[in-house]
Amino acid sequence: MREAHGLRETHGTRAARPVRKVGEAALDWVFAHRGEFRLDEDALAVHGDVNASWKPLGELAQVCVSVRRHTAPDEPVHQKASALLEFAWEETGRGALFHELQRLEPFATYPMEVYAAFASAGLRHPRYESAAATVARTRGWRMTEQEPNRRLSVLNSERRSGIPPHDDDLAGALRRTWLGGLPEPWTFERAAGYTLTHVVFHLTDWGYVPDGLPPDVAAYLRQWLPPWLDTCLEHEQWDLTCELLAVAASLPGPPDRAVLAESWAGLAAAQDAAGAVPEIGPGPGGRAAAPGFRACYHSTLMAAFAAALTADRLRQDTGATV
Fold first, then answer.
1. Residue 308 domain-assigned?
2. Cβ neighbours of residue 3 under 8 Å, at least 6 residues apart?
3. 286: confidence class by pLDDT, cuts 50, 70, 90
């Protein structure tokens, strides 16, 4: 296994340095392209493309919240994340657009899932929360059929938004997910990978509460993340690699540096000079994604997210200032 530019050195400062470098470059790229995250005129349209408007903005907000949580206020990356979070909040009319969305689509969950990231950072809109809480008390909201992973997202979003969760069976929702069933590890594939990463994010509040993972799930992940990461590296699935690295940094207990080393080396090699990370590469016989913002914004955000979590966990593990 490669040394990954010193990642396996025992001193916390040296170990975290290459990880932080990837994260800083990624956030620099995001900051330079922040205009691409602006909500367009279709953001409130009934048939608007949520995946091209609210989803990227919500992902930007969540990553910025996470970076701020895991970095010191005097660090440039923390300050840049704060500026980006303020930019994203302004795009929502400082929360007013969530209230309008609630009126237009009262039973849609995505407004609350996006709003929750802002609310967790103290950016609140009382009128939206009041309206959303009213809907969340209805039978229609409680009985909406959802994938178990999505149910975990909604429950966590309600909690973060200060809205009483409509269901207290978090453990039951977990056990209905792919990850919660502790499946045969060889059944891992791309769709399962993305599902399991988000299950972990919802249970740990995006890596902030590692003990949110049940012991058996944490042990299962610690055992099987290494081969899954190797598979993603081999096939140059950089976006999923970033998410799995964030999962590795979200597990309780000290991080496994041997697991991190080769993955971060590969990710660093995939990052371009401007800081962008492509979603996928050619792999052993595939094709790289077409260049452009849409093909790399999510993976670049995830690189910044995973780097902030990993560097912070390495610092905690050694007690060193990084």
1. yes
2. 261, 265
3. low
